[in-house]
Amino acid sequence: MMIGIGSDLCDIRRVERVLAHHGARFENRVFTARERAAANRRSGQARLGTYAKRWAAKEACAKALGTGFARGVFHRDLGVENLPGGQPVMVLSGGARARLAEIVPDGYAPRIMVTMTDEYPYAFAQVVIVADVAPIA
């Protein structure tokens, strides 16, 4: 069953300006350690695109949760990691994880799907949250 859907379009140039002005303070406040490591392994436009895509994914996921960045949901509660094959996955913690638990009916297991792309000067992400019938243990 569909629980929520969200999308976001981010201007990479805006992320570039914020990083230039606030640097590590912005990175540490918004991104998880794994996201920072992934972005900082790259340089130039690739680094900026990595940050912008993750920003867009966080915004999209907050929309899919139905809260935006309110009710205890913070940017760092929403992380994007990659499976060994490269597929992005959302990793929720803190208030975002609690909100997900609130909106998924008993007897169901949440599944979060995320897709991201960037083409300078824009980055885009879409998040879909579904609930599947939980397997019987």
From TrEMBL:
One MF annotation (Gene Ontology) recorded for this entry: holo-[acyl-carrier-protein] synthase activity
Swiss-Prot/TrEMBL catalytic activity: apo-[ACP] + CoA = holo-[ACP] + adenosine 3',5'-bisphosphate + H(+)
Gene Ontology terms describing biological process: fatty acid biosynthetic process
NCBIfam families the UniProt entry points to: acpS, pantethn_trn
Keyword Ubl conjugation among UniProt keywords: no
Protein family (similarity comment): Belongs to the P-Pant transferase superfamily. AcpS family.
UniProt-listed SUPFAM superfamilies: 4'-phosphopantetheinyl transferase
Pfam families associated with the record: ACPS (PF01648)
Gene3D superfamilies noted in UniProt: 4'-phosphopantetheinyl transferase domain
EC id: 2.7.8.7
Full protein name: Holo-[acyl-carrier-protein] synthase
Gene Ontology cellular component list: cytoplasm
Organism: Novacetimonas maltaceti
